[in-house]
Amino acid sequence: MMTHDQMAFAVSKLYPDLACWKDYWVAHPVESGSDKQIGEAEIVEWRADAPKPDLKTLKKTFNTHADEFNAQQVKAIRRAKLIGSDWTQLMDVPEQTRTQWAVYRQLLRDLPQQKDFPSQIVWPKPPTY
């Protein structure tokens, strides 16, 4: 089942000059009272002059570029983890704490070098406080 993020990514591969939420809108149905996806994503608004792609084309395009999409998703999570741990490198943080967190942060930076990146990720565990 394709998510709205995957669909927007596929459209961007087919039409790099189009902008999501300007030239087209994508969505997927969710379970009432939650954010659990319960159906296929769809293009709910198409304002571009280019022909609107069908679901089969979008799925094929996404599958062709899935590793790129997955890498972007992993890197976004990694970026958030790095930003969330920036404080650990401030000079008023004890040296032992800075050192432990520096190792963790380097492991995050090294994620793209993992053997099966981006399909299989072994996330490092952050140090305990």
TrEMBL record:
<dbReference type="Pfam" id="PF09636">
    <property type="entry name" value="XkdW"/>
</dbReference>
<protein>
    <submittedName>
        <fullName>Uncharacterized protein</fullName>
    </submittedName>
</protein>
<dbReference type="InterPro" id="IPR019094">
    <property type="entry name" value="Phage_SP-beta_YorD"/>
</dbReference>
<dbReference type="InterPro" id="IPR031893">
    <property type="entry name" value="Phage_tail_APC"/>
</dbReference>
<dbReference type="Pfam" id="PF16778">
    <property type="entry name" value="Phage_tail_APC"/>
</dbReference>
<feature type="domain" description="Phage tail assembly chaperone-like">
    <location>
        <begin position="71"/>
        <end position="127"/>
    </location>
</feature>
<feature type="domain" description="Bacteriophage SP-beta YorD">
    <location>
        <begin position="7"/>
        <end position="68"/>
    </location>
</feature>
